[in-house]
Structure to design on (842 residues):
């Protein structure tokens, strides 16, 4: 069998926790154009078993292997019989060992369950002018001007026509006159899928349990509406206009995404897009701070002092015991210059701006989300009862002690198996979070190991001497960079391991519903990832160099000196740590998302051509069989996507002052992330079910911040050995302390130190108060729901009432006319009867 480049290869997970494997039936032999146009409501073709009306569409597909298991066959027959009792039409098709059950929902079933699910559907308007905005204001004019200015980012209206505004109300079969039920497009594909999945989950054991429990079914999924290269399909349109990298500057077609993937996925992309757009002003301000530092670098007094001949004469105290030598202050020249690119006069302004930006972003997104919820008809909608997880029921069936225990569900009023809260849930939760604490301590131990690594390199100056590094100029960069890279590797490894452990621990707690499972898993993973990603950054920002002591009396831990910051502070090291962890994490995950599917496809080709995997002689060519090979979403859905962005948000809000370019890197990553996610969802995944300083100048500041130390005061066991500086009598170190010849308190804190510390606290209080006032103003000005949206909602509610009143009045008139005609006909009959009787009597 010869394979060509036009053949499509897809990937499927082999285990529920998301590990990937190449399926045995992996190779898709369908070449583009071989099949007729299809849609997610795909037309049934003629098969050997049934002849179907061409207007009927496949709403859902169930797949199972014909393995001869009688128990499975009996379960399937009972389940499929229950589906038919609900009115669903099921059609069977078998190809080799694979059996496909194609499900179609008739109009009556859709209407019935649309009412049960309380879905809001569009109603027929009395006049097309009812929803038009009659008034415009200055803000509307400014918005129109802004849209015209950036027309190049707008979507093509021919490909993505603007969604017409409609009135939505809960569907009711008693008020069918309000809805255009006769229109074949009244129930869009996403609604059809959602209704069918609702039915599938509430019959017998539920489809998710039947899929996950002992393999009664292999898969259950809705269909894509064709291949991602098939012209005329929504999937191909989204792939070309939304998923393509060259469309990165275009806004997202949220309405089309919502109609194709459902509200849950549309909300995710809406949030990701909004967050990305909000990063633009933060990136611009961060760049301005960086360029200001670059422009003013040559005139910065601290940089001039660090690189002056005076600094060459300043001998600094050793950075470690015994083996470290003295060093000259001018070796920090390059480090000081680079630090001042980020730590300059604009840093405070940038910090205040980012505090304001974070609050503004949250408030604006809340308003935007309210608009989207209203736009997609989700205001006040509740999905209903949350049923037990299939994994929960499966675990109960394996534990005999729980089989006889049942509890009445207060919502569904049905008896469900359950576990004891005190005997099972509490001990399991305590054990689970004990393991979490141990793993968190493991993450902290990894940070401590990296600290020891830096201390070891500081003591091993011979390494740099052998590399012809004549001084510490490059060592000041090499050590933080290598340590941050090592930290990143530890973070990624621990994340991968912990993710698996967290899922196992959460399953052990036996949460009943998917919502309880997600809440418990989220808490575990976020606690760990918060510590794992941020611990080393918190250490550098708040602990490193703060409680070191002085050469005569260093504060030691396990008899080891603590790490010290450079004379200019630890901000540059913090910047390096943040940049490598944040940017490195984003780069690694992006590469994985781009490369992993390609690697698995190449591996599949290699196994086929080398005979490591036998060829499948019965590869079907139907749409449903091709979608069967795509990756299943699993119960976690968009969980990992959200978590990745939340961690990034923490980087650019908690520590952004140390690295003003962080918003720019986040912006670049998110622009790419949107398109990669779109491509991944459209190409590799099945279609998801819709879910809803002293003299007030800085002259002499560097010299002023360095204290003096008399080398004869070194403890003998820690004094430097084999120094190359000759007889050094005085060295300097970064601290505010009295000189050794002070008449009363040598090496003690001077009054100046306490004044500086007090002013730092005063600044923090003032800064926090000013930022807090501004944020409260923002929150007060920006209410949760925009005024225009409130007015529109009230207007739509009023129009809906008017339409219902008008329609009911029309129906009442029709009924009255019918009654009058009936009464009139009855009267006429009585009169005729009377006349006939009179004639007979005469």
């Amino acid at each position: 069998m010869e394979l060509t480049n036009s053949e499509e290869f897809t990937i499927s997970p082999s285990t529920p926790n998301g590990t990937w494997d190449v399926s045995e039936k992996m190779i898709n032999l369908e070449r583009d154009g071989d099949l007729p146009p299809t849609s997610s409501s795909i037309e049934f073709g003629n098969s050997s078993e049934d002849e179907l009306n061409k207007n009927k569409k496949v709403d859902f597909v169930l797949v199972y292997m014909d393995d001869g298991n009688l128990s499975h066959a009996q379960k399937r027959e009972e389940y499929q019989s229950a589906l038919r009792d609900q009115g669903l039409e099921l059609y069977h098709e078998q190809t080799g060992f694979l059996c496909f059950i194609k499900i179609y929902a008739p109009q009556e079933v859709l209407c019935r369950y649309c009412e049960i699910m309380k879905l809001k559907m569009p109603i027929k308007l009395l006049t097309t002018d009812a929803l038009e905005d009659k008034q415009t204001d200055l803000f509307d004019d400014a918005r129109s001007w802004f849209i015209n200015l950036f027309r190049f980012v707008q979507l093509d209206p021919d490909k993505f026509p603007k969604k017409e505004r409609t009135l939505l109300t809960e569907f009711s079969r008693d008020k069918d006159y309000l809805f255009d039920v006769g229109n074949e497009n009244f129930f869009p594909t996403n609604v059809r899928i959602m209704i069918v999945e609702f039915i599938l989950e509430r019959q017998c054991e539920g489809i998710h349990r039947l899929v996950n429990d002992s393999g009664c079914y292999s898969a259950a999924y809705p269909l894509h509406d064709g291949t991602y290269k098939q012209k005329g399909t929504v999937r191909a349109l989204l792939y070309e206009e939304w998923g393509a990298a060259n469309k990165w500057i275009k806004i997202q077609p949220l309405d089309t995404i919502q109609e194709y993937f459902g509200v849950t996925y549309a909300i995710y992309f809406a949030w990701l897009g909004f967050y990305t757009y909000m990063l633009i002003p933060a990136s611009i301000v961060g760049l301005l701070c960086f360029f200001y530092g670059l422009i003013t670098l040559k005139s910065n007094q601290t940089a001039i002092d660090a690189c002056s001949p005076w600094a060459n004469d300043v001998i600094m105290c050793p950075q470690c015991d015994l083996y470290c030598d003295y060093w000259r202050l001018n070796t920090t020249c390059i480090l000081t210059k680079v630090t001042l690119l980020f730590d300059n006069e604009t840093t405070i302004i940038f910090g205040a701006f980012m505090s304001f930006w974070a609050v503004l972003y949250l408030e604006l997104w809340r308003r935007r989300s309210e608009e989207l919820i209203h736009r997609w008809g989700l205001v006040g909608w509740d999905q209903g009862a949350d049923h037990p997880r299939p994994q929960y029921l499966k675990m109960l069936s394996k534990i005999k002690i729980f089989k006889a225990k049942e509890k009445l569900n207060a919502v569904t009023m049905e008896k469900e198996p359950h576990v004891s809260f005190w005997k099972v849930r509490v001990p399991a939760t305590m054990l689970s979070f004990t393991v979490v604490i141990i793993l968190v301590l493991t993450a902290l131990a990894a940070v401590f190991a990296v600290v020891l690594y830096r201390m070891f390199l500081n003591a091993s100056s011979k390494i740099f001497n052998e590399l012809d590094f004549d001084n510490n100029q490059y060592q000041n960069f090499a050590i933080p960079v290598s340590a941050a890279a090592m930290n990143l590797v530890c973070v990624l490894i621990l994340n991968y391991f912990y993710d698996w452990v967290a899922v196992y621990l959460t399953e052990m707690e036996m949460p009943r519903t998917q919502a309880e499972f997600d809440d418990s898993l989220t808490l575990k993973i976020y606690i760990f990832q918060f510590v794992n990603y941020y611990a080393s950054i918190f250490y550098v920002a708040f602990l490193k160099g703060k409680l070191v002591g002085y050469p005569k009396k260093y504060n030691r831990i396990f008899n080891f000196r603590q790490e010290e910051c450079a004379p200019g502070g630890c901000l540059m090291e913090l910047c390096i740590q943040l940049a490598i962890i944040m940017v490195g994490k984003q780069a690694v995950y992006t590469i994985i998302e781009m490369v992993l599917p390609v690697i698995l496809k190449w591996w599949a080709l290699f196994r086929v051509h080398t005979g490591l995997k036998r060829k499948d002689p019965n590869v079907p060519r139907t749409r449903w069989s091709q979608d069967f090979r795509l990756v299943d979403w699993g119960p976690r859905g968009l969980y990992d996507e959200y978590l990745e962005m939340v961690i990034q948000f923490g980087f650019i809000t908690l520590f952004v002052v140390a690295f003003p370019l962080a918003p720019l890197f986040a912006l670049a990553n998110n622009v790419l992330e949107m398109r990669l996610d779109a491509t991944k969802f459209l190409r590799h995944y099945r279609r998801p079910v819709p879910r809803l300083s002293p003299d007030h100048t800085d002259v002499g500041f560097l010299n002023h911040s360095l204290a003096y130390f008399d080398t004869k005061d070194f403890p003998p066991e820690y004094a430097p050995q084999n120094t190359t500086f000759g007889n050094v009598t005085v060295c300097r170190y970064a601290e505010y302390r009295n000189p050794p010849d002070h008449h009363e308190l040598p090496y003690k804190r001077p009054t100046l130190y306490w004044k500086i510390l007090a002013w730092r606290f005063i600044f923090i209080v003032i800064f926090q108060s000013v930022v807090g006032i501004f944020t409260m103003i923002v929150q007060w000005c920006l209410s949760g729901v925009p005024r225009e949206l409130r007015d529109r909602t009230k207007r739509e509610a009023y129009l809906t009432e008017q339409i219902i009143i008008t329609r009911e009045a029309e129906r009442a008139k029709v009924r009255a006319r019918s009654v009058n005609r009936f009464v009139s006909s009855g009267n006429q009959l009585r009169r005729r009867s009377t006349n006939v009787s009179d004639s007979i009597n005469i």
Observations:
- Residues 37 and 232 are 8 Å apart (CA to CA).
